[in-house]
Prior knowledge:
Keywords: ATP-binding, Ligase, NAD, Nucleotide-binding
GO molecular function, one term: NAD+ synthase activity
Enzyme class: ligase
Catalytic activity: deamido-NAD(+) + NH4(+) + ATP = AMP + diphosphate + NAD(+) + H(+)
Oligomer: single chain
Organism: Joostella atrarenae
Mean pLDDT: 95
Order of helices and strands: HEHEHEHHEHHHHHHH
Amino acid sequence: MKTEKIIDYIVTWLKDYAENANMKGFVIGISGGIDSAVTSTLCAKTGLDVLCLEMPIHQAENQVSRALDHIDWLQKSYPSVLSKQVNLTPVFDSLVAALPKVEKEEDRFMALANTRARLRMTSLYYFAAQEKYLVAGTGNKVEDFGVGFYTKYGDGGVDLSPIADLLKTEVYNIAKVLGINQAIQKAAPTDGLWGDDRTDEDQIGASYPELEWAMEATDQGKTAADFEGRKKEVLTIYTRLNKANRHKMDPIPVCEIPAELKK
């Protein structure tokens, strides 16, 4: 891939979109992961304002330190970058306390994980409204259009998606050229929604390179029946998640009332 030209293309696209929308810049959540690091750097290269929010909710210490190190590097490299740390842990804890009790806490782990993402989205839009910023999404192509590995109305709630046409491996290529912190480049991808060290691969059951292969195989009309062993297993995982998460990737269904019923 022509990495430097892709970088220039995305930066121009971001700047043009913001200026045409009469917005001052971008706000983005910084997680300590590769996608938010790359996206925030691309936004910073526009020269427009970039507000980086670090929003911990019972976050692992290494995720917080990577996020803060990246923000520090970004501010030293680009004068238009601003930052705020918004501790959402007490907000999250208060909400959990206000919700009805359940017999087994594990029954609502997924709901509460998604709640974390939605609290962050709410915070991003608060600052976006205050400052006339656009909320920049950090999803890549496999997450957004392959397996739907994001939270509906959480990290999926954004104004624009600069890297959503890039595979995860392509995001890493861009990170190298941008000079993203090595600790971020080497860190195992994680959604940071669980308060522990589980990775994306732990949750999905396949690595991003494997999922990229499965996505390409699916586009070529292949099915799990065409393969054996690990490839069969990976394509089965990809197909299951792609089907289960269509509700995230397809437009919201609208009940269209027949014209004759409105007369």
